[in-house]
Structure of Purine nucleoside permease:
Amino acid sequence: MTAFGPAVASDGSGELGRWIDGYGEFEREVSVPGAPTAIRVTDHGVGVTATGMGPTHAAASTTAYLLSDAVNPETTYFLTAGVAGVSPHAGTVGSVVLADHIVNWDAKKRYGKGTSVEPWGFGPAHAYELDRGLVDAAEDAARGVDLEDTPDARAHRERYTAAPAVDAPAIERGTSVAGADFWYGHTLANEVDSLVDYHGAGSYATTECEGFGSAVACDRFQALDRYLSVRAASNFDRPPQDEDAAGEWRLKGPAFRNAYRVGRVIADEIAKNWADWRDGPPDR
């Protein structure tokens, strides 16, 4: 599941386009009522689609898939693959992060101009720990994937002073914070850290839009233990420590292509070794 197109993008732009171009041919297309984009299915059982951008669209589309005849939640794995912002304390531009937790950034309380926030004290869960065995197995499958780097991305990370921000792209693990708010800056990053800490939800790594919406839908259909989130860093979520620059989140670098490279390796590993994966991730 990507967030957005274009449907065909030979230059690699767009999340969905990279998958369509990469696979080239599909065995069939399945239109799902309530979903904005058909599911294109390969001959070995990988389905590729776009949910629409943002948590509301992701939740609605994922629910539509789960309710459709095309998807059996008991025998399907769900993988969100897309771009994200990254904390310079967790990765660098071009890195790919496999989420081990997903936190809802929209359900929070803020007071004045403080740098800490609190989650709602009522209602359903607003943070999930994803299935550890599944994340471990996905990480094993992705190990050794060649991540692309670019001169622009290297020049951008040179403005930072410490690892891992200054390092080459790598595959990482960490918490994904998802919400409808496109944000940038040190103050907001501190608020994100405080919310993750309140939830006891691991170490904050990426900021994105769709993950929590899709995770909620999977949870409602008892499929959360079959959900993965793969996010490639298109930008840092804050400027270097001694700067206060306005939003630079538009820098994409190699993120689209790296999200596809890692996501496809995981998807193909599952589909091509289905006997080992059907009832859950294989033992490591």
